[in-house]
Design brief:
437 residues; alpha/beta; Rossmann fold; 2 domains; 13% strand; disordered C terminus
Length: 437
């Protein structure tokens, strides 16, 4: 007789929580997920996804009988022993992680019996120790997520590693969590709670450091006439370095890197240590978002009255996430210089409407480019590579494109009549603004 799989509770059905809930259901578990936003719960109960993530709608539909959504904590506590906490921990004004939602969960579990708290949310090292003191008798396991937006379902179902942190006395709870992940085949890393918490923060900090480093190299390449794509290729062949995250651009964004780097920097500072390297990584990233404006000014002179089209708004393709997106800074800087900004994104326009005042949102890329003095590729959506660039050039007042992701074929764009400039690649000789009209 086949062993019945353990029921699972998920607290918070944002991006991490919803992926976690649907993927565990796909593995055959009954899952009850709780969120305080009634509209979100109602939509999910009708089978409607509340975020854009490839593969998620199919999982939600296929596993409808194993998934239940509720606003009531009592239903969750009555239906599951293992409770995965997937609530948001955004940065506060100081840069520290806001743990108010985590503390709310702790209050809900106070006095409970027989449950295991599994922390998926990214929290500062030391949080688990505090929760164990606040919830005596409730086993605590740290199991940080390592999902990438746009490929989260694949990342969950085929992990490179699963980190499980537990302190003495909670080993059986850790065993139960490890058993859930065994069918996925990823390496299971067993450690203590504080180390598990630090693994998540350190991993994101290192990846962000690689991005800021290659962006600095790209900026130097522009000055000396080197091609950063060739430099990164040569670097990445060194097995000690590897090719991942060596693609230059206009800065990282999203829900994880900016938040987690600030939290780690504050954690270090609150502990009495000045994390100088991390401060530089953050600074480089913020400056990188603004370099595009300098590139436009070098070509156009004053941007006052110029129409600039932004192609892509989300911080990366295959998501509608606008958190810390480079487009936010870029649009604001362009408007600050007096430019008119038009924008198009295949999925993120609705999310962007409330965040970008005064921006004209177009129904298509070609509509955004109509009459534009310049365009900036911000997000490397595949449809931009397939765009009819000859028609795009004909629609623009001046066919000038800054490729903020080195995504497009420079030769193809130039053959279509564009002035093309990427990141970290020596541009064609630029005419002065006075003679470029």
């Amino acid at each position: 007789m086949m062993e019945e799989k353990e029921s699972i509770g998920v607290i918070g059905v944002g991006w991490v929580g919803l992926v976690t809930a649907t993927c565990f259901a796909e593995l055959g578990h009954r899952v009850i997920a709780r969120d305080i936003v009634a509209g979100k719960v109602e939509a999910l109960s009708r089978g409607e996804t509340t975020i854009h993530e490839p593969g998620l709608p199919e999982l939600l539909e296929r596993n409808a009988e194993r998934l239940a959504f509720t606003t009531e904590m009592s239903e969750l506590l009555g239906g599951a022993r293992l409770l995965f906490v997937c609530v948001d921990t955004p940065p506060t004004v100081s840069g520290d992680a806001d743990l108010s939602r985590v503390r709310s969960v702790v209050e809900d579990l106070r006095g409970g019996d027989g449950h295991v708290l599994v922390m998926k949310s990214t929290v500062p090292a030391g949080t688990g120790a505090t929760i164990r003191r606040d919830l005596p008798g409730v086993p605590y396991v740290s199991c940080p997520e390592f999902l990438k937006e746009g490929s989260a379902v694949a990342d969950f179902m085929d992990p490179d590693r699963v980190v499980i942190g537990a302190d003495p006395g909670d080993e059986s709870a850790a065993d139960a969590v490890a058993k859930l992940y065994e069918p996925l085949g990823g390496q299971i890393v067993r450690t203590d709670v504080a180390s598990a918490e630090m693994i998540k923060l350190a991993s994101n900090a290192f990846l962000a450091t690689k991005i800021s480093f290659v962006n600095e190299i790209a900026n130097v390449c522009e000055e000396v006439g080197a091609d950063v794509a060739e430099v990164a290729r040569g670097m990445g062949l060194d097995e000690r370095i590897g090719p991942a995250f060596l693609r230059p651009g206009i800065g990282y964004g999203g829900s994880c890197f900016p938040k987690d780097l600030k939290a780690l920097k504050m954690l270090a500072g609150n502990s009495g240590y000045h994390f100088q390297l991390l401060g530089a990584v953050i600074e480089v990233n913020e400056l990188q978002k603004r370099r595009v404006v300098n590139k436009l000014q070098a070509r156009l002179g004053s941007l006052a009255g110029r129409r600039v089209a932004l192609l892509g708004l989300a911080f990366k393709p295959d998501t509608d996430d606008m958190r810390e997106a480079s487009s936010l800074v870029l649009a604001a800087r362009l408007q600050g210089e007096g430019a008119e900004v038009a924008a198009y994104d295949p999925v993120a326009v609705e999310a962007a409407r409330g965040m970008l005042d005064g921006v004209e949102f177009a129904a298509s890329a070609l509509d955004a480019l109509e009459g534009a003095d310049a365009a900036v590729l911000v997000t490397e959506w595949p449809e931009f590579a397939a765009l009819d660039w000859r028609e795009a050039a004909a629609r623009m007042a001046r066919p000038l494109l800054i490729d903020g992701r080195n995504f497009l074929d420079a030769d193809l764009l130039r053959a279509a009549g564009f002035e093309y400039e990427g990141i970290g690649r020596a541009p064609e000789r630029v005419a002065s603004p006075a003679t470029a009209e």
